[in-house]
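Data availability excerpt. The first of two example chains:
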Amino acid sequence: MTGALIERLPADAQHWGSARKFVNIFLRNCAYNRFMCEAYRLDRVEAWMEVPLDSHVAAGLKHDALEANLDLTLPRWKTVIGLTPELSDSWQRVAHAIAQRGGIHRVHLDVRYWNGAHLQLQARH
């Protein structure tokens, strides 16, 4: 799906990372829509959905991984545009571990991190 989107983007905008983020946001929004979720049974694929990655999510994942003493190696975050499938997989593994600890699927972490919960946690320390 990411590859198909990249092919349809203008040549100067064909970045795997941003295309993957767009796909993940689209799928998440479909899953959050009751009518779409029921019509296409999106609840069946929720466990495989990815958290859309950006600097806010990366900061939240890093914070939560450190707080939980997870023995996971996080790559240095650069940019969404610079994201590769390999880097994305590393971040998604961390997201999966954090989400499992919270009893949710990783796709839902975006709501927490994008709303700045990690910034509030850092301000308390």
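And the second chain:
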Amino acid sequence: MWLGNNRMEITDIKYYICIDRIENNDMAGRIYHCFRKEQLCFDSLLELVFQLENEMNGMGYPQETTENRYFQGQEPKLQKIKQKEWQIAMKESEIRAHKGGKATFVIEVTHRENATWQGNVCWVEGNQKLNFRSALELIRLMDSINSIMANKM
């Protein structure tokens, strides 16, 4: 929900994933969202998951229902900024202008329960929107699109 003065509630966050390269059954590309001006790059689907998890942990949304445990001294240093509303760094129209060379996805993670993610993913070029119940299911959905794109080439 837009709150005016270039602010919005954090519950409205969507991650725009631009897939630029598909090699050896893996994807590489860029991540955009409205609370970060610069892009985040990833070189594999695993790195994409880690990047998104770090962003969600840093914002504290969606809130985790489980707590990570670490060996002594191994806990990552994250700056958690707990606030209900955030300043918009990039307008959604600016983000939508970015397209992946191979595919573009819009991911909305609505819950993080049972030590994984739940939400929906939209494949922009295929005009398809699907729900996922885990990060693994999200990866499988994106990988199935990878297969469709590979067969078209």
